[in-house]
Amino acid sequence: MYTRHICVSVNERIADCSAENSELGMMLGEFAEVCEADDRKAVSAAEKNGKKYITAGSYCGFICLADGTLIEILPHSEDGAESARKALCGEFCDRCGYEFRPTSFEPDMNFFEYFVSVFAGETMKIIKSGVLSAYASREENLNSVQGTIMFSENIRRNLVHREHVFVRHEVFTPDRAENRIIKAAAAKLIKLTANPNSSHSLKESLSYLEEVRTPHNIAAEFSKCINTRNTKKYNTVLDICRMLFDKKEGTAFSGKYVLCAQLYQMEEAEAAVSEQKSAEAPEAVEKTAPKPAPPKKRTKTRRRR
């Protein structure tokens, strides 16, 4: 759970590297070095008049740091932070295939909490409709014969304990790649969110996915996901998970002191601001449009006899 919220616009100063902000300046400085090495200037270190400070770059999104600081970077907007935040949330929804409703957006909610709320809400929809299960092969010691007896392993393990039998059998279980990825994302976000509704939904989701294992190699889990008619309801949630874990998506940022970071290119978010502004005020656009000139009257010409 974050304890401090810093909201800035692109290319604005985030923090000074003074004695009071030494820990924050150190963490952001390390993150700036990682961004520079990746050639993605989300934040950068600068110096003026002998004073060092950290500024936001040309990316919009959020950064959760290890000390509990949440940094929110918004696109430029003439209508204030709320309009810029809506545009950023709309950009996120376009990327994950979720329908953005500006009327349902809470003004007090920052972009990170909106990000978590969409993931938690879509995960609960999957759980209420029923998580998908699949058959998986298991080898274990049982008290009764199920499936095929593994004779060599059974002799090695149960030479003394004849009441057990080592078998290989098929189990219908929710422990499949899609559910393992969702569980990993829910376990990550529940530690960071400060919204009680999102926290409750994520906690409930983890209780439903108790039988599902926590994945160790998430990149390998994505390769096991199958896109079929039955898995269509997983599309939005898996797209959000790819943003969180898959570096190939280009939105996930990492660092030594960064717990979670999602940052998008400034140009795309600023384009969303202008689109939202024109969509919210169509009447103003019509009023400013020039009126067509009235048609000229035709004059009759008399022929000379």
Question: What do you see in this structure?
Answer:
The protein has 305 residues and is an alpha+beta fold. It is 41% helix and 21% strand. A four-stranded mixed sheet has the order 1-6-5-10. Strands 2-4-3 form a three-stranded antiparallel sheet, with helices on one face. It has a three-stranded antiparallel sheet with strand order 7-9-8. Helix 2 (81-96) crosses helix 9 (266-280), helix 3 (111-129) packs parallel to helix 6 and helix 5 runs antiparallel to helix 6. The relative contact order is 0.15.
Key traits:
single chain; 305 residues; alpha+beta; 4-stranded mixed beta sheet; 3-stranded antiparallel beta sheet; 10 helices
CA(first)-CA(last) distance: 97 Å
Sheet with most strands: strand arrangement? 1-6-5-10
Proportion of residues in β-strands: 15-25%
Largest sheet: 4 strands, mixed
Number of helices: 10
Task: Work out the number of β strands.
Answer: 10
Radius of gyration based on Cα positions: 28 Å
Order of helices and strands: EEHEEEEHHEEHEHHHHEHH
- Characterize the overall form: elongated
Helix content: 40-55%
Low-confidence stretches: none
The secondary structure category is alpha+beta
Average pLDDT figure: 85
Q: What is shown here, in short?
A:
The protein is built from 10 helices and 10 strands. The protein is of the alpha+beta class and 305 residues long. The longest helix has 19 residues.
